[in-house]
Design a protein that fits this description.
It is built from five helices and no strands. With 95 residues, the protein is an all-alpha fold.
């Protein structure tokens, strides 16, 4: 029987995900995508890849992606996103 996840379990999962997101992307396809998107080589982690893919969807007119980008920016108004912020700002002007 599955047990309920405790706060400790959730923290472990969150820490695990944070570590994975901070790792450099693997695979030439992902590296080339980020390079073409204008991301500096020293910023090619999984978090940036996910955000860039989300922004790509938003740029193509995907309404749910546009809403998600706006929600992320609104939740984190005071956080410095660096290159991701530049990408997201461009997307915000799409809709």
């Amino acid at each position: 029987m599955a047990r309920k996840r405790t706060k400790k379990d959730k923290k472990k999962l969150s820490d695990c995900l944070a570590e994975i997101l901070s790792l450099d992307v693997s695979g030439e396809e992902h590296t080339e995508f980020l390079k073409a998107f204008g991301v500096a080589e020293n910023r090619t982690d999984n978090k940036t890849l996910i955000m860039a893919r989300l922004c790509e969807k938003a740029k193509s007119g995907d309404i749910s992606a546009i809403k998600e980008v706006r929600a992320i920016m609104n939740e984190n108004e005071n956080q410095d996103f660096g290159v991701i912020a530049e990408i997201i700002e461009a997307v915000k002007n799409v809709g």
